[in-house]
Design a protein that fits this description.
Layout: H1 4-16, H2 19-31, H3 34-59, H4 65-82, H5 99-112, H6 116-125, H7 130-158, H8 161-183
Keywords: Membrane, Transmembrane, Transmembrane helix
Protein name: GDT1 family protein
Subcellular location: Membrane
Length: about 190
């Protein structure tokens, strides 16, 4: 249960300036069914988080506690580095005709596959609490998806995403460095 809140916070911070949230806002405007689109996006994130958590649980027995901490540090530093630049605009998936639930479910799943939220879930799951890591990451991404869907594309564009993305990147970098130094026993 220790990883539930960190997974939630990491996922929410990572998703704020990322492409899946913008795509959720775009699709919510397109289909005009905001809650349906948000729930589909949340389910897509949930599927990705479960896959990541299963991977983390698979490698957990192979890792020492120091290696688990180092894996989390690498995930945080990687998330921080990727957060320093603006993500490319998301494809609007205008040709996809799977409805207000199917389109966001598939599009967000494809777009979010392998992004930093899943890397965080993988690293946290490797500490031995895979389902809590998946649940926390899913809930954090869902919270951002709901906000993006309710605001729509124009409202989401008014959120200071650049500042939030850079702030989250700084937090990830500092936390990753501190955890990494501790894992390598370079700090007291």
């Amino acid at each position: 249960m220790e990883v539930l809140v960190p997974a939630f916070l990491l996922a929410a911070l990572a998703q704020l300036g990322d492409r899946p949230a913008l795509l959720t806002a775009v699709l919510a405007d397109r289909f005009e069914r905001r809650l349906t689109v948000a729930l589909a996006a949340g389910l897509a994130h949930g599927m990705g988080s479960v896959l990541a958590a299963l991977g983390g649980a698979a490698v957990a027995p192979l890792l020492t506690p120091e290696a688990q901490s180092l894996l989390l540090a690498v995930a945080l530093v990687a998330g921080g580095v990727t957060g320093l630049w603006r993500p490319a605009p998301a494809n609007r998936y205008e040709r996809w005709r799977f409805g207000s639930f199917g389109t966001p479910l598939l599009a967000v799943f494809v777009l979010a596959l392998g992004e930093q939220t899943q890397f965080f879930a993988f690293a946290l799951a490797a500490s031995g609490e895979a389902w809590f890591a998946a649940a926390g990451a899913t809930l954090g991404a869902l919270a951002v998806a709901v906000a993006a869907a309710m605001l729509g594309e124009a409202g989401w564009a008014r959120v200071p995403l650049r500042a939030l993305r850079l702030g989250a990147a700084a937090i990830f970098l500092v936390a990753g460095i501190v955890i990494g130094l501790g894992a390598l026993r370079l700090t007291g």
